[in-house]
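Entry type: protein chain
Record version: 2
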Amino acid sequence: WASDEGLWTIKEGDVACASSMIGWKIMGLGGHGSMPEKCKNPVPTTIDIYLEMQAVVDEWNKTREHFVCTLPMVRGADKENIIPEHGVIRGTVRNLRREEAEEFVAILDEIAERHCKEKGLTLEKDLNIFFYPTVVNSKAQCDVVRQAVNELHGEGKIITRNGKIELPVKGSED
């Protein structure tokens, strides 16, 4: 990482989190808003699932180091007079350990499965755990960069932590 001051941060080991892409499609039975009795509206269940998932997300985000989940995509109806066939929840998990991501997603998955079962809806899953892997710098890679920085910018330009970027970052290669 280069800084505005011409300093370089080089770190061996974990540098950036892995990214898992997660999503659930809650399948109901759509139809016209004038006949809701002939439909299985997935929107209320999608909202219930999302709210319960978000409580888990908030807790994990507060209590886990190098872990962040966001569920920024929630979709229901696209038209005010049409009950949709499905609702959608999508997001990402960024962390360093695959086992932790798997444990977390299993909790969210159980929430979705339970709500769909209770309401007689079906569930489609799109869970790509560690879709983009953790970025890990080897000692050999860091040695090459150290040598190049020293040759191009002079000695004393490498620091272990620049105060602006805490490594590993929660960002990922997505």
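Comment: Helices lie at 43-63, 98-119, 139-153.
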